[in-house]
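2024-03-11 09:14:02 INFO worker-7 job=invfold-0412 stage=load source=structure_tokens
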């Protein structure tokens, strides 16, 4: 049986680390225990098992392993728009530029300036069969991906598409 931590469980379940910690504190992740101050979560069939709550809406976590990889795409139109802003005002601040890296993970679409891929990935180029967003070149990975905060502003590190 494979044992993982909260970060890996959050990635597999498609939820944030804080939500995993809340589920752990409520005793809703099967077989989880603390060892030297860190949570250890067993995998059952390559996924952690979350016990459903008795009240409230149905949980939004993944119940089986993802079949579709995480897609990382660099938006050319936003790069060109940022270049025009920089040409007009060379002293422009980073928070006034639009983030150009799009992370498409499950149902979410997040934007940022810099990210880290924690494992193997592949670069895909399909000029005749582009992705649903219109991209011809992107990176696919099944490994965890995390945005890096370049200006020590956590709000700027990862933003949902609707807030940009």
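2024-03-11 09:14:09 INFO worker-7 stage=emit residues=164
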């Amino acid at each position: 049986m494979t044992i993982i931590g909260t970060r890996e469980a959050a990635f597999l379940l498609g939820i944030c680390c804080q939500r995993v910690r809340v589920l752990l504190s409520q005793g809703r992740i099967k077989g989880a225990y603390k060892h030297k101050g860190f949570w250890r979560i067993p995998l059952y069939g390559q996924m952690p098992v979350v016990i459903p709550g008795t009240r409230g809406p149905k949980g939004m976590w993944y119940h089986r392993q993802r079949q579709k990889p995480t897609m990382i795409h660099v938006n050319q139109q936003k790069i060109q728009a940022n270049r025009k802003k920089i040409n007009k005002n060379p002293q422009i601040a980073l928070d006034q530029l639009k983030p150009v890296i799009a992370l498409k993970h499950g149902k979410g679409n997040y934007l940022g300036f810099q990210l880290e891929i924690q494992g193997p990935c592949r670069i895909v180029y399909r000029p005749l069969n582009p992705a649903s967003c219109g991209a011809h070149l992107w990176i696919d990975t099944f490994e965890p991906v995390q945005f890096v905060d370049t200006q020590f502003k956590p709000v700027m590190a990862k933003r949902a598409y609707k807030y940009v």
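2024-03-11 09:14:09 INFO worker-7 stage=report msg="The radius of gyration is 19 Å."
2024-03-11 09:14:10 INFO worker-7 job finished
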